[in-house]
Amino acid sequence: MTKPLRIGMIGYGFMGRAHSNAYLKVNRFFPDLEHRPVLQVACARNAEKTRDFAEQWGYADVETDWRKLVERDDVDAIDVGCPNDSHRDVAVAAAKAGKWVLCEKPLAMNAAEAEEMTRAVEAAGVPNMVWFNYRRVPAIALARQVVEEGRVGRPFHYRATYLQDWTISADVPQGGAGLWRLDVDVAGSGVTGDLLAHSIDTAMWLNGPIVQVVADTETFVKERVHQETGQPQPVGIDDACMFLARFANGSMGTFESTRYARGRKNYNTFELNGADGSVHFDLEDPQYLDFFEYARPSTGTKVEDHLTGWRRIHVTNSEHPYMDKWWVPGCTIGYEHTFVNALADFLECVEQGRPFEPDFRAALGTQRVCDAVLESAREKRWVDTGVEPSE
Q1: What does the DSSP 8-state code read for residue 50?
Q2: How far apart, in Å, are the Cα atoms of 350 and each of 22, 81, 118?
Q3: CA–CA separation, 134 and 127 (whole Å)
Q4: Which residues neighbour 234 within 8 Å (Cβ) at sequence distance 6 or greater?
Q5: Largest CA distance in the chain
Q6: How far apart are CA 119 and CA 43, in angstroms?
Q7: Domain 3-131, what architecture?
Q8: Cα–Cα distance between 321 and 318 in angstroms, integer?
Q9: Which CATH superfamily is 134-384 part of?
């Protein structure tokens, strides 16, 4: 028996498209799911662009006020794909209205807002998720499996980079529909919330809680024209961020992110080094996971082999995470498929009564680390994150 899940999508931009595609595709590739997403209402302030978006993707209706959307009886789930400064108000109202809530990352402008959102969904008892889609890259999911199987052993080091180059020119303005990520009043932060939130979520999923950080940030272009006023104004976001981390398990971490790495478009990498092995991943070559095996967990003995070295695994076989739902071995999947995988996991967990991650509480932990990073950069000292093991 199938159950319609009527979606109210807030936002028609990059994430609105990615999420809408997932709703359209999830049942075709995960046919055993009970829920069937229905593109019910698209919502954004610009009526003309919202109608165009709704027509292109197949939404049945449009709204220009998210408050009216939340009140509608013909909507079961609210997808918060609007800019960061609206996440809290929309999510809290949706939860109080009894709607499922699916929120784009970062969860909020800061940890205080994230805490309020988490309390709201938990008090209402509504299903909730945050679209940290990189967990659903098959190679990253395989890295998690490798760690859980004990193949890395005691962890020593975690290092992550997330590099882009699209804001190098001082002529790039801030604010408005396309460039709100450069406006601190709308985004909350720069690369810390936009890029490092992904890196932090992945790191804590693979290696456990980050408990302490020391950071530095830089804003290279101090003033940009604001698109909505046409006037120059100070830039309040961080263009670049680097921080050191201590994990609860005793391992050390390094994180670097910037939008000023010429030639890097979406260079998201991580490496975890342990006593028994290492894993390495690069999002710009996402079908591969690199694995080094030093000792086998079944025996604890050192691998003695003249071919011992880094192993490149092409993560496309049916035994790899998610790949039995897609194509034949050797055929890769892309960025958009990670959202389909994430949505499928979420729906399956709801249907089976199992916990899903990352939910709001898990994303709250990431938000706390982001806040601690920015606090450390301001105060030039080590800062405790306050992240609990359950987060």
Answers
A1: H
A2: 17, 21, 17
A3: 20
A4: 222, 223
A5: 67
A6: 25
A7: 3-Layer(aba) Sandwich (3.40)
A8: 8
A9: Dihydrodipicolinate Reductase; domain 2 (3.30.360.10)
CA distance 225 to 81: 25
CA–CA gap between residue 51 and residue 168 (Å, rounded): 34
- CA 30 to chain CA mean position, Å: 21
Residues in the chain: 391
What are the backbone dihedrals phi and psi of residue 368, each rounded to the nearest 5 degrees, phi first? Answer: -65, -40
pTM of model > 0.85: yes
Residue 186 near residue 347 (C-beta atoms within 8 A): no
Token pair 């938000």 is found at 367
The C-alpha atoms of residue 163 and residue 261 are separated, in whole angstroms, by 6
Q: What is the pLDDT along the chain (391 residues), one digit of tens a residue?
A: 799 999 999 999 999 999 999 999 999 999 999 999 999 999 999 999 999 999 999 999 999 999 999 999 999 999 999 999 999 999 999 999 999 999 999 999 999 999 999 999 999 999 999 999 999 999 999 999 999 999 999 999 999 999 999 999 999 999 998 899 999 999 999 999 999 999 999 999 999 999 999 999 999 999 999 999 999 999 999 999 999 999 999 999 999 999 999 999 999 999 999 999 999 999 999 999 999 999 888 777 788 788 889 999 999 999 999 999 999 999 999 999 999 999 999 999 999 999 999 999 999 999 999 999 999 999 999 999 999 876 5
- List the domain boundaries for the chain: 3-131, 134-384
**Concatenated DSSP letters for 222-265?**
-EEEBTTT-SEEE--S-SEEEEEEEETTS-EEEEEEES--TT-S
